[in-house]
Amino acid sequence: MSTPTSPYTPRRANGPARNGTAGDGLDLDPEVFDDGFGFDQIQEIAWDDQPLTQNAPQVETVDPDKVSVAVDNASKIYRIRSGTEHKNSTKRVGRHLQRALGSGWSEIPALNELSFVVNRGETVGVIGTNGSGKSTLMKLLTGKIRPTSGEVFATSTPVMLGVNAALVREISGRENIKLGCLAMGLSPKEAQKKFDMIVEISGLHEALDRPLKAYSSGMASRLQFAIATSVDPDILLIDEALNTGDAQFRSRTKKRLDEVRAQAGCVFLVSHSLGTIKQMCTRVIWIEQGRMLADGDPEWVCSQYQEYTDHKSNGRMRAAQIVYDRTQLKLSPVQVEFIDGTRPTKAG
Ligand SMILES: Nc1ncnc2c1ncn2[C@@H]1O[C@H](COP(=O)(O)OP(=O)(O)OP(=O)(O)O)[C@@H](O)[C@H]1O
C-alpha cells in the first residue's frame, strides 16, 4: 500500500489514518491472509451489510460562491419490468419465459444515499468496478434521470461527454464540428471562431474531410472531446472518453482540462484507468455496489481500489472484503447544509 505524496487533504476520510495505513488495525498481507486469517471475524461482514462506519457525520456547508455540484443524500433505484424482455419472443416462448422468470416489476438499487460537495476548480475522478453506479451518478448530475430520494444540485447544466455522445457518422469531421457547436448552443459565428481550436485539440487535421464512419473509435472520441470542451462548460462530465486516446492526445487533453478548471469550471472523470485518474484528478470518489467507499487523495484512493480489485481478480474474496471494510471504516458520512436562500438549481 502506498503512502500518498500529494498535499491534497481528503474531505471525507477520518483523523490521522485517513491518508495512509496507520491506525486502522486491518492492514493485511494477502498471502498471510489467504492462509486462514480470522475467518469468523470476516463472516460477520456480508457484502450487502449496512456500512460499518460509526463515524459522526461531517457537516459540509455549501458555500454559494464556490460550489459547483452538491449531492445531498441521493439514492437511485431503477425499476424494470421483468416481462419487457419477453416482448420480442414468440408468444409460446414468451409465455414460458414469463412463467419461469415471473413478471411484474423488479428493483435495482444503483446508488445508495450519496452525499458530497464539489467546488469550482476541482477535477473529480470517479472509480468503481463494473455496475457500481458511476454512470448512474453522471446521469443524475446531468439531470437525465432523477434521484429516487435525496437531491442533486448543480450551479449550471453539466455537459456530458460520453463515448456515445452524438456525432453523425455519414458526414465529415469538419461538418461534425460545425454541427456539434451549433447543437451545443453556439452561434454560427462563435462556431467559426472555435473551429481552429477544436481541430488543434482533436489533432485530426489530416482526417477532417473524411466521413466519420472512416474514423477509428479513438479518433471519434478525440473529436467528441474537442467539441464538448470548446464551449468552456462550467461543469464537464467525461465518461471513459479519454481512454482511447494516444499519449499525445492525453497530454493535450490534460492541458485542456486544466484550462477548463482554471476558468472556474469543475470536471468529473469516470474511468477504469487509474493512470488517467491519477494524472488528471485532484480528488477521487470510489463508488462500490452503489455506496461511496472513499473520497479523497487520488493516490491513496486509487491504491486502495487497486488492492481491492487485485484481490478480487485473483479470487481472494475475503481479502478484497477486508480492503473494502477497511476503506469504508475511514469514511465519515457527509451531511450537506445549505445557507438559507442559497441553494443552487436542481440538476435537470
Ligand atoms: N436503465 C437502467 N435500468 C435498470 N438498471 C440499470 C439501468 N442502468 C443501470 N442499471 C443498473 O444499475 C447498476 C449501476 O449501473 P451503472 O451503469 O451506473 O454502473 P457503472 O459503474 O457505470 O458500470 P460500468 O463500469 O460497467 O460502466 C447496475 O446494477 C446496472 O445493472
UniProtKB/TrEMBL annotation:
InterPro entries: AAA+_ATPase (IPR003593), ABC_transporter-like_ATP-bd (IPR003439), ABC_transporter-like_CS (IPR017871), ABC_transpr_TagH-like (IPR015860), Bact_Polysacc_Export_ATP-bd (IPR050683), P-loop_NTPase (IPR027417)
Pfam families: ABC_tran
CDD domains: ABC_KpsT_Wzt
UniProt cross-references to PROSITE patterns, sorted A to Z: ABC_TRANSPORTER_1, ABC_TRANSPORTER_2
Gene Ontology molecular function: ABC-type transporter activity; ATP binding; ATP hydrolysis activity
Region (Disordered) residue spans: 1-28
Record keywords, A-Z: ATP-binding, Nucleotide-binding, Transport
GO CC terms in record: membrane
Residue span(s) of domain ABC transporter: 95-314
Family recorded in the similarity comment: Belongs to the ABC transporter superfamily.
Protein name: ABC transporter ATP-binding protein
Taxonomic lineage: Bacteria, Bacillati, Actinomycetota, Actinomycetes, Micrococcales
